[in-house]
């Protein structure tokens, strides 16, 4: 049962449950919370939600104010920059008062080369209206969204719970008719054959690992669908797509550190997939079709990756194009008829490198700000010399440019509007460096209103992630302005385990070096205090998912360094989860965290940093913990168990648990609901920082 009085938070029942591995027996008093169907579980989560609402009731006015600020700065009726594909411009538009985007297209007019800036031209066709599809559902998300090569058919899939299991459907864009074809329980990813008669899609196994690629013939029942490829190795998952050239279906199979690619001609969808190169443990590669060849981005004897090619007719030896350059991480390659564009990063910043076909020379695009993030945007056309890129910084709103790859000229197509008189000159961004305990220099990106730095220690939010080689690059946020304009400094700690500084940065923050992620973050926090940016009493930390694990770890490692911590969908019971191969994604995660089932060393190492395993009777910072009942990536019971144990072991602390009862890993799906959720978090932070 759950014990609660009107003036006290819930106290979950303790039902001891033992597990034993490698001679180590552990008692888990809250394992029962993993039973989603147990009425006690629902009662506990609802009691926590009620307590959180009561404990933050005094912030309701501030929450409303911040929501109004986010809404007031956002152009609610807007559209994306249209992207050309064949005879149409495709775009997404939003309408004031509506939660979801509307997917549309309009015909290309004779002689029209530039994308239209408005939809005031004839022939707009609504392909999908997310608001109509969502209806009264509490949650809605699109998975697949693929228009056939001839533009006649649309494959799309929907999720109404947040568990990332989608129902796939086909719509005839000529008539608006919805075909009877319907495939339940699909995953992300789909691809059309060249003639639109066949659709490839993906399903998952019992552990929710994407493991099968299917071939569906349009107009035939799903019971007749054929398995094209099944991945037997439980460490690997599969993906499917169509090359930009529309010549090949690509089936990718990958683990955290190894990959294998198969292709089949898009005009022969029933042919047997051809392996580009057999998998070799530790070798990752991806392919792009480019005329007579496949471009291959790989890490074979190239830690930061190199670029090669092989024949598209008979893939065999790899011919070097760009050799390995230590310190320059090649992240992806995009092929166009006469150009190749490589996305890369160097010294913690993203960049784009261009090669003209037939040339061995390349050039890198240049950008004016010292901190920024840049990458390719929507580029569906293969036969083009113009590409679209997205650019942002911590003071520059998201901007869309079209770049002529031959003349190198750039045309700004759109910058995200920020209403209310936003002036980037009122803000400034900085790059600082912290020193980790082992002497490693760790970059920190910072943004603040001008003058805040000079006035001495300021309230500060420090964000971190640090896993899966994912990089948290400098970016602009409308919601963040509600902090900056109240004098709060915003900082991103680019810690090891992420990919900001190249592949070695990632390698030094995983498996048996995972502690570097946590000590790097603490070093960043301490550096901000030492250098006069803030003080521990004025510092809040925030992280989500694997970044939520980071939050739990630093709460145990250095609770005195923070006034508050926000842990969203936090992976705070990693050892228990990674020990259970039946759970979603566990086996595929072993190459990231290690396999504690087979290795006593890994078991002891993970137990040493697991937030749930290491809750102690100490004075913790104020904690706001967020969860999603239908989360399939970090199961809801991890944050629930963590808060329950915190209440029992370290009583008297200010711990709040808020569970979205109708959502998954990404939280509320509608934009207004997401803004309300963000306003809730920001108001809580400002309360911790004594700015409420």
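Q: What amino acid sequence fits the structure above?
A:
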């Amino acid at each position: 049962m759950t014990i609660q009085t009107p003036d006290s938070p819930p106290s979950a029942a303790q039902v001891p449950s033992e597990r034993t591995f490698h001679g180590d027996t552990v008692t888990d008093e809250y394992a029962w919370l993993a039973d989603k169907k147990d009425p006690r579980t629902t009662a506990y989560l609802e009691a926590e939600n009620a307590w959180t609402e009561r404990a933050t009731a005094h912030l309701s006015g501030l929450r409303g104010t911040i929501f109004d600020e986010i809404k007031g700065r956002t152009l609610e009726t807007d559209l994306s920059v249209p992207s050309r594909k064949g005879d149409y411009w495709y775009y997404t538009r939003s309408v004031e008062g509506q939660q979801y985007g509307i997917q549309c297209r309009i015909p290309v007019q004779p002689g029209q080369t530039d994308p239209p800036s408005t939809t005031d031209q004839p022939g707009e066709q609504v392909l999908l209206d997310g608001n109509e599809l969502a209806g009264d559902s509490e949650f809605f998300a699109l998975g697949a969204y693929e228009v056939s090569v001839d533009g006649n058919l649309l494959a799309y899939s929907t999720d109404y719970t947040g568990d990332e299991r989608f129902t796939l459907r086909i719509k005839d864009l000529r008539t608006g008719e919805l075909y009877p074809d319907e495939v339940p329980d699909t995953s992300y990813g789909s691809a059309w054959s060249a003639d639109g008669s066949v659709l490839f899609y993906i399903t998952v196994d019992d552990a929710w690992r994407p493991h099968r690629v299917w071939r569906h013939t349009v107009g035939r029942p799903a019971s007749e669908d054929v398995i094209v490829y099944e991945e037997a190795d439980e460490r690997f998952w599969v993906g499917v797509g169509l090359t930009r050239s529309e010549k090949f279906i690509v089936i990718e199979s990958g683990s955290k550190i190894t990959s294998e690619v198969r292709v089949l001609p898009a005009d022969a969808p029933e042919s047997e997939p051809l392996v580009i190169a057999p998998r070799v443990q530790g070798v990752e590669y991806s392919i792009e079709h480019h005329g007579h060849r496949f471009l291959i981005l790989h890490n074979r004897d190239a830690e930061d990756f190199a670029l090669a090619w092989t024949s598209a007719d008979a893939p065999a030896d790899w011919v070097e194009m760009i050799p390995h350059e230590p310190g320059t991480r090649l992240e992806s390659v995009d092929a166009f008829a006469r150009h190749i564009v490589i996305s890369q990063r160097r010294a913690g910043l993203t960049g784009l490198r261009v090669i003209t076909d037939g040339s061995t020379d390349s050039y890198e695009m240049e950008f004016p700000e010292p901190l920024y993030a840049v990458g390719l945007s929507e580029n569906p056309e293969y036969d083009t010399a113009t590409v679209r890129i997205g650019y942002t910084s911590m003071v520059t709103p998201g901007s869309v440019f079209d770049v002529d790859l031959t003349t190198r000229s750039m045309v700004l197509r759109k910058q995200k509007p920020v209403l209310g008189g936003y002036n980037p000159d009122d803000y400034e961004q900085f790059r600082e460096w912290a020193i980790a305990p082992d002497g490693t220099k760790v970059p920190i990106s910072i943004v603040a209103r001008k003058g805040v730095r000079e006035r001495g220690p300021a309230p500060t939010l420090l964000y971190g992630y640090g896993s899966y080689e994912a990089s948290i690059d400098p970016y602009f946020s409308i919601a963040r302005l509600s902090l900056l304009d109240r004098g709060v400094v915003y900082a991103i700690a680019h810690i090891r385990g992420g990919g900001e500084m190249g592949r070695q940065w990632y390698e030094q923050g995983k498996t048996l070096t995972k502690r570097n992620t946590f000590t790097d973050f603490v070093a960043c926090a301490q550096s901000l205090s030492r250098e006069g940016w803030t003080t521990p009493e004025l510092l809040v930390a925030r992280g989500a998912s694997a970044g939520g694990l980071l939050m739990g770890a630093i709460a145990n490692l250095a609770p005195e360094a923070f006034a508050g911590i926000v842990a969203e969908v936090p992976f705070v019971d990693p050892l228990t989860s990674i020990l259970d191969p039946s759970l979603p994604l566990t086996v595929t995660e072993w190459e990231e965290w290690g396999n504690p089932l087979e290795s006593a060393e890994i078991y002891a190492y993970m137990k040493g940093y697991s937030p749930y395993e290491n809750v102690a009777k100490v004075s913790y910072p104020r904690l706001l913990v967020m969860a999603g009942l239908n989360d399939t990536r970090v199961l809801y019971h991890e944050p629930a168990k963590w808060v329950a144990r915190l209440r029992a072991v370290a009583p008297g602390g200010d711990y709040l648990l808020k569970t979205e009862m109708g959502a998954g890993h990404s939280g509320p799906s509608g934009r207004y609901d997401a803004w309300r959720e963000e306003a809730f978090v920001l108001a809580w932070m400002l309360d911790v920082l004594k700015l409420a």
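Q: And what stands out in the fold?
A: The two ends are 35 Å apart (CA to CA).
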